[in-house]
Amino acid sequence: MENTNINIEVAVRQYIKNKERVIKYNKEHPEKCRVRQKKNYDKMKLEEPEKYKAKLEKKRLNYQAKKLIQKSE
Questions:
Q1: Number of C-alpha atoms within 13 angstroms, CB side, residue 44?
Q2: pLDDT tens-digit series, residues 12-36
Q3: What is the pTM of this model?
């Protein structure tokens, strides 16, 4: 594989444009996004239980931090 010169500015511009398109698609098709996320979530629960437990723990900690901020206000 040869090393070729890559124009960084063009690559960044393409990345940003692609990211904007993804955001637009997700806003226009929320039901498809929900179905895809649910499928991935269920798959994680079954195939990667340690990752699922870590996710739940992170959610729990975020919830507790949020509650502490609300109490202090």
A1: 13
A2: 999 999 999 999 999 999 999 999 9
A3: 0.62
